[in-house]
Structure formats: structure tokens, C-alpha cells
Amino acid sequence: MLLGALSFAAGAQEDSLYRHQVRLGWGDMMFETMAFHPGLAADGNRTHHYGYTGHIFAGYAYSFRKWVSFGAEIDFEGIFWKETPCDPYRSPAGETVSVRNYNLTIMPEVRFTFYDKGWVNLYAGLGFGALVAFDNSGGVEAAPAFNINLFGVWMGKGHWGGSLEVGALSALLGGSSIYMLGSRLISVSATYRW
Q1: What 3-state DSSP class applies to 129?
Q2: Among 149, 148, 150, 156, which residue's Cα sits nearest to residue 121?
Q3: Which stretch of DSSP H or E encloses residue 10?
Q4: What is the pTM of this model?
């Protein structure tokens, strides 16, 4: 009986191999560079000297089956620029200030693996959660967020690997408050699984 229990535990341990995965990654900021760029703001101020962090993200997933896993992800990005007040002739008319905007997205997600051959996995996924946008002037806003991972490739051997994903991270409140739309189109990440 003891031998049977030990063999069952060993089989269960083998079955649970690589059920957990953590990852740390970076995604592009193509949407942000198109939406936030040098020019004149609606209030007539001149915006210039833009900087972007891109999307820095971390996540955890648990595989219930070989083909489906559930988890959560945190995504953070920063968008920075300088703003100079201008007169009606577009000449500087005041002191330049630094503006720093941040987006923090937290979302549960599901992933479906449709090809798994040891050192390579192909997958797609979907996430839905919330975005909190805040800035250095004290403004804070929240919006629903969703991420569509159209296609992902994981490559690795054993516990370590890396991923390349094509998708779209979006957060908006109707047509007037768009925080991200099709952002993080391409992302890369390092993963550890056990």
C-alpha cells in the first residue's frame, strides 16, 4: 500500500511539472509615439522633448491543462514631455514644465496553447481588467482595459524560455477617453516555469 501511494505521488508530481510560469517582459510603445508627439496642445502650449518607457510587464500563469492556463498580469508604462506656454504668435510666454504620465494595468488573463512540442509552444490569449492612469500633477483616472494576444511563440528548454507575442492592449472609456488603443503590438518576455 505504501509503495502504491508513493508511485501515485510520483505520478502526480510528474503530471504537475511546469504548471506554474512567471514572466518579465517589455512591449513596444507605437500607439504612444503616435498619440503623444511634439506640437501644440489644445490649450496652445507647445509640447516637446518626449520620452517613453514602453510597456514593462510581469505575470504569473497556472496551467490547469496542457492547452489552457489562467493567470494575471501587471503592465506599467511612462510617457514624459515638456510643455511651454506660448502666446498667440507661438512664442514662449512662460516657464517650461515637465509632465509625467503613467499607466498601470492589472488584468486576469487566459491562454490557449494550440501547439506544444517540447521546446516550442504556440498560443493565443485574452485578458480583461483595469487601467489606472496618473500623472505628476495629481490627476488619477481609471478605465476598463483588455488585451488580445493574437499569436504567441514560447521557445525554451527545461525551466527557462522566452516569448514573442503579437497582440493589442487597449483601455478606453467611450470614444472621448482613449488611454491606449492597440498598444503593445509586439512584446518579448523571459519566462521561468516549474
Answers
A1: strand
A2: 156
A3: helix 2-15
A4: 0.86
